[in-house]
Amino acid sequence: MLNYFNSDSEFVLESGQSLPSLQLAYHTFGKLNDKKDNIVWICHALTANSNPLEWWDILIGENKIINPEKHFIICVNSLGSCYGSTNALSENPKTGQAFYHDFPFFTIRDIASAIDLVRKELQSKLGFEKIWLCVGGSMGGQQAMEWAIKEPYLIENLALIATNARHSAWGIAFNSSQRQAIENDSTWKESNPKAGINGMKVARSIALLSYRNYEAYNLTQTNQDERTQNFDAESYQKYQGEKLAQRFDAFAYYNLSKAMDSHNVGRNRGGIENALSQIKAKTLIVSITNDVLFPPEDQQILAKYIPNSTYFEIKSPYGHDGFLLEGKKLSEILEREVTSRIQATKDAIINTK
């Protein structure tokens, strides 16, 4: 079910700038059980929305590892996104016009702080104390990590998939090139909801090169004939740009990519090692072996410094997109390392009484 959190209070950002008010869209699925210990909180990636049954149905849904028949599932649309949360196309109550290019800069930490406002409201209404499991992949993992540091006793189990503690120079370079594509769209400076949309199509084409890899393109986009032009790989790049333009806008894409670049859990916390050591949740960390955007080295840093963590690598021909496509492998790991382990602990407690 789609819901909205609304606040007329000023939301102060990490930069010192602020938003005069805040709206956050969020979905809930399933019901909170009597013990109030079945909450699964999903943090979404760059262009996703707050309905993970639409974009992560490999893990979430009927008969899946995260099941609304068993779990109370919550997902909040990120600050700055265009799926119902306050973003650059929202009305600035101070001017009565859309923010457009005046939307203030925000960070991953700001997104996590906004999510926590929804948590506090739901906690007050529903009376739960803990989140049983928080799951995030890619940029969603960055948010989940920040949240687990900010509120170390809130989350019991944390699953971080294909993500990092600090966005790499490599990842920033990809995002910068994408923003340059938007900036070089002649419409970008216009105060228009469609400003920069053609540039965003090119940006998406660039992004795909980091989401997949050499193996993935050869596997799915190689022509079997002997043509000399009009290749499948070429049409695929164009198709994906057009597809995104039908559901997203350049302002959200631009601002969210800048937020991703800002990600550094060690900022003002004494460094990455010190920040990660503050995570109290039992943490599952999953790498995708041939992920060129968030390579295993990024997750190995998490495993090294998060105290109560386990680390797994999965093989996938799809690179970074494996976190969205490798449902069977991810479900097996979650089942073994989270669901079964927690049930075994509950059974042990019952048997000792």
Automatic annotation (TrEMBL):
It holds the Pfam family Abhydrolase_1. InterPro entries: AB_hydrolase_1 (IPR000073), AB_hydrolase_fold (IPR029058), HAT_MetX-like (IPR008220). One of its GO terms (molecular function) is homoserine O-acetyltransferase activity. Its main location: cytoplasm. The active site is at S138, D291, H320. Its EC number is 2.3.1.31. It is an enzyme of class 2 (transferase). It is found in: Cytoplasm. Pathway: Amino-acid biosynthesis; L-methionine biosynthesis via de novo pathway; O-acetyl-L-homoserine from L-homoserine: step 1/1. Keywords: Acyltransferase, Amino-acid biosynthesis, Cytoplasm, Methionine biosynthesis, Transferase. GO terms for cellular component: cytoplasm. Transfers an acetyl group from acetyl-CoA to L-homoserine, forming acetyl-L-homoserine. Belongs to the AB hydrolase superfamily. MetX family. Homodimer. This is Homoserine O-acetyltransferase. It comes from Bernardetia litoralis (strain ATCC 23117 / DSM 6794 / NBRC 15988 / NCIMB 1366 / Fx l1 / Sio-4).
